[in-house]
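thread: overnight batch results

M.L. [08:02]
morning all. the overnight job finished for the chain we discussed friday. pasting input first so we're all looking at the same thing
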Amino acid sequence: MEVLVKASQLILSLSLLIVLHEAGHFIPARLFKIRVEKFYLFFDPWFSLFKRKRGDTEYGIGWLPLGGYVKISGMVDESMDKEQMKLPPQPWEFRAKPAWQRLIVMLGGVTVNVILGFLIYMMIAFTWGDTTLPNANVKYGIMCDDIALNMGLMNGDKIVSVDGEKLEAFNDLNRRLMLDRPGTIEVNRNGELKTIQIPRNFADTALSKGIKASISPRTVFAIAEVQKNSGADKGGVKEGDIIVSLNGEKLPFYDMYRSRLPKLKNTNTAIGVVRSGKYQELNVHLDSVGMMGVAAVSPSFLLGLQTTHYSFFEAIPKGVSLGVHTLVDYIKQFRLIFSKAGVKQIGGFGTFGSLFAPVWDWESFWKLTAFISIILAVMNVLPIPALDGGHVMFLLYEIITRRKPNQKAMEYAQMAGMIVLLALFLFANGNDVFRHFRH
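M.L. [08:03]
and the structure it wrote out:
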């Protein structure tokens, strides 16, 4: 059922974004009196699921959900209609229009995706506000993985600043470490300020191990869910319990159990829990990897999230700010994508689908839709033939040199671009399949 819910959200999100992206090409084309022969959601090789012709344009839904397209008369595109291009240009064709008009048509889809992303972020800010975990609320300090520990951080350190800039929202920390390549991080360790040097290869090392958040807030071990028929379930552990000891040893924080439990695999272990303010001991069986079968409460909920609400007019600059930050952060990620470790993180439909909530959550849906809209804008503007950015590249060449590119060269470039995109598509989705079977 979870898979169906996630798939439904992904299809709805992509359908909305594809239709509006193609409308970004369609509307200026019609305004400039350019004939649009087809407007399709999804691709329709051999047949379509639905089609209807109105005026000069055939509107339809294809069966292959890999995107969508508008077929503009007199343009070298994915249809590779060479016969049309052999005829003299007609007044209603794309190639007969001035370069500046063609440039506007080609940038229309990307422009719509950027504006749409910003508008959705404005709507989110107005409807749900902006929720963060204030750094001041991380009262027990941090919990580190091996990469952060090797860097010199310690469990319990309290983050003060990154590169001299005070950390206000804790949820900005890992994003900054991965994307901004800061040089230092200042912590409060038992009342003493210490400056830790951050290795230049920190992000690459984290990605190579599949880690996107090396530092988490330190919290107590509070139980959110108990797996049915697990060692914890049979031992009497309940949702809401707080585990405070292991075999008589008092352990107040979750990270202490994370390091000790694997050493007790396949054993019956005594744990102390606090339930409704009262302490009691339970006996649970740990499985072959030291798990008892529980899920811990998210640290953010335990420490206290803070939501800032915005009026309609306040939400406008906030939405623009969120959109700009998302756009800049995604562009920064390209440095990581082209690294050896980053290439392994590239994903296709499975990766995008996994981002959606397992239950229908409109706030989560719209946040991801805004994020994907920004991604589509960036990806489509890349100077790769077969993408909008490839057409823009040829148009800029024409505007600067005042010469139209060679028709044959454009056709070959289009074919090469389509081959590159197909290879990237197969690689990204192949990564998803590989990760699925590996885990």
